[in-house]
Amino acid sequence: MRRICKVLMVIISIILGSSAPLNMAIPPLLALAAPDTSSSSTMSSSAISKVTDTNVMAVSADVTSTTDTSDTSSSDSTSATSTTTGNDTTETADTAVESGTVGTVAWTIDDAGVLTLSGGSFADLTGKRSPWYDYASLITNIKITDEITVTTASNYGFLFASLANVAIVTGLNKLSMSGVTSTESMFYRDSKLTSVDFGQTDFSTVTTMESMFEGCSVLTKVNTTNWDVSHVKSFKRTFYMCGKLTMLDVSNWDVTQVTNLDSTFFGCSSLPELDVSRWNTVNVTTLSDTFYNCSSVKIINVSGWDTARVTDMSATFMDCSLVTELNVSGWDTAKVTSMFRMFYDCKNIIQLDVSGWITSQVTSLGSIFQNCSKVVTLDVGTWDTSKVMDMSFLFGGCSSLTTLNLEKWDTGSVTTLYSTFYNCSGLTSLLVDTWDTSKVTNCFWTFGGCSSLTTLNLRSWDLQSATASYGNFFNGSKKLQHLTLGPDFTFHNDKTMYLEEPSKKLPYNGTWQRNNNDPTYTSAELMTNYDGATMAGTYNWVKTSGTVLVKYVDGDGVEIADEETSSGTSGDAYQTTAKTIDGYTLHATPTNATGTYDASTITVTYVYDGNLFFNSSPTMLDFGSHTISGTTETYAPTLDKTLAVQNNGQISSTWNLTAELDSSGFVGANTGKMLLATLYYQTDDGKMTLSPGVAVQVYSQTTTDHKSVDISEHWSSNLGLLLEVPNGAAMADTYQGTISWRLNNTVANN
């Protein structure tokens, strides 16, 4: 009886390397992302007059000099007597050298310089100078010995004015202020006077205190606590230039009748505190120079002030250089016409809320915020500027401002933009593109020193009326890279507007260009050639062009995919990505995979590790159907696909192939019994037995190229994979087993 033994071998899996099966998906490649302004501003004539006005007195009291003994007396006149006898001079201590009367008040000036006033009442003091003005050089002290009261002469204006040597006044408590209506210039320019104490608080009939202590330059203290000033209408220049004043209590003053606070505390530069928080300013019409140069005061609380009637706020807080906070957000500015230098040199203010101010009547905003160097934001975008003519130094020196939105400002009345944005060194953005500048005659230094400004749109600007004063318009705006000019803009065909030259540092080449195909210009060429009719548009700094070359290579530097190029403007960003290349895995992303174009060619090289892989593998090895023989038989398999390997790794690297028979060996499909046969791999060098469950190296090779290696090409009946079935080992059945092929890579020999 003849039996047929069919031996069938099915390959279920072939595993690459030492762990991953051949048919595992390759993980996806990693995706790759990619001039000094302080001296250049011109003060208005009104401001100058405030500084130079000295109240020079043209009217003097009558003075009669006589050498006879006749009586001269009058309640309405001033008399003086001096006696000189030959060449004889008799001098005793405290001897009167001058004497006279003012009304019923007798006075003497002794040789010690003491002006002594007796009791009585003064005559009408109508002159604009002191009754003792002619003796000013003699008087060092004033002493009032008896009570002086008011009868018909209520005007004490200039009473002790311009007595420049007077240091001490005693007995002021005897100078009754009851009934007095004017203390104007009472101590005007008493430049050696150090303190004043009236010893009384009743000033209830006084209506003006203008210039009362003006020019008392060494005055340190005035006892003004609880003064009744309820009928005073003017405090103009009351403490003007009292530069040494360190104490002043006006906190409880009733100022409801006051209309004029012009220069009230002007130049009180040593005053550390000033409490005016409770002042009722309902009738005030002028706040010009009110706190000018109060440079030692840190807090000025005016948040509750009623400013509804105020028309002049020029220099109100000028030179209040230590003030850090100022709440004026609730001020009514509807009637104000001038805000000239209002906050000039308030260099420590950080926040200033003026967003709700009504400015429809304002004609001057010159220097309003000049040198407010710590203010970070100014919300003035909704201001009505339709009547404003002066915008000189408006934001000059506001070096902490970063942006200003002034696009809605009506500038149709403006005549001067002199240094409007001078030294706004923090500005990066400025919206002024809609401004009407057709009436502007002065645009000197308008954007000078705007050293951070990169973009400026002047599409609607017309500077044709500024025929003389337009120099240094752009001077110092070194980062200005994008400039929009309109049809009415003019450089006046010369270079004095000083448009800064574009950078020549990469990526820029030092020129301007409107459109890509337009001519390029240096700043000098643009200023001298600009014609609004044909050249209007946005000019930009020209950038050089650059190229990026992307290469894809293996570990040996051999190109494994076509290179790619891209071009762009120097300074612009570029981004490259790796390719998915069969048989290769990206080694690492190059450091310059992303960057910016420059004038050179940038080479980006992606390096890949070559893969070791089966580019063909059999799924079935069929050892055929055979009749059971009485002898030992050897069988060679038939493959449904070749067994081929490709190594894309580095040249000279070595790899090997192992084969492993499953630990179950060959098992009969019907009997479930193992075939006691030997599977082995035969080479010219010998025989390698594949015992079940043991991996055996059957092939190795050193890579010389990246071509496919067909391992099964030379398999035959005596080479390659063979199955030896001993006599009596098989019974009729179909046997199946699994062989795992594995590839292993080693380091290249360098």
TrEMBL record:
Pfam families tied to this protein:
DUF285, LRR_5, MucBP
Kindly list the residue ranges recorded as spanning the membrane. Answer: none
- Segment forming the signal sequence: 1-33
Q: Which Gene3D superfamilies match?
A: Putative peptidoglycan bound protein (lpxtg motif) (3.10.20.320), Ribonuclease Inhibitor (3.80.10.10)
What residue spans carry the region label Disordered?
A: 63-95
Give the enzyme's EC designation. Answer: 3.2.1.14
**Protein origin, superkingdom:** Bacteria
Spell out the protein name for this chain: Chitinase
Naturally occurring in which organism (per UniProt): Lactiplantibacillus plantarum subsp. plantarum
